[in-house]
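During the no-cost extension, the postdoctoral fellow (Dr. R.K.) reprocessed legacy sequence entries with the updated structure-token encoder. One reprocessed record is reproduced below for audit purposes.
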Amino acid sequence: MAEQPCPAYVLAGGRSSRMGTDKARVEITPGVTLLEAAVRSVDGGFSSWTVVADRPDKFADLGFRTIADHRPHQGPLGGILRACDDAGQGIFFVISCDRIGLRRSWVEDLWALMEDRRASAACFEFKGRIEPLFGWYRAELSDKLRSFLDGGDRAVWRFLESVDAATIEAPPKWEETISVNTPQQLEHARAWISQKG
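Re-encoded structure tokens follow.
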């Protein structure tokens, strides 16, 4: 990891329409929200945590600095652009608020890839698909990101290909991670955590 700790951002600006309520706030275990669980899974070594949401201070009650997405409803790229602008320079890490089962060691694996290739971004690839919401990004991507979104494209994978982002095959345990977007997935995730003990 960097000698100077880098900031980390959580994307939580979606509408949570499939969950029926704000998924970041649903409890994955008693007293622990999905947002908190996602952060705890990879916490350690970052200089700060900031949530990108639809309005500022939305998660202040949970102890998270929260900034508003300047381009709401433009998908993850809008949130990554907001993180770029907030970071200003250097490198930062991004996760989504709705995935559990992540591991801190994976953050370090991607950092090594980022450093080795001097890449503009670094993410895993799983079954032929880029996993952009667990990765390192350079704040200097902001102008390219803005132009890409202004062109009407919101596909994260296309943007990452356009900037030659570095990717490596996801680690074997990646398939055990769970994205929690529906009540059914929430119950599955709770059962998974219970089994892990």
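DSSP finds six helices and eleven strands in the chain. The helical segments are 34-42, 75-87, 104-117, 142-150, 156-162, 183-196. The remaining legacy entries will be reprocessed before the final report is submitted.
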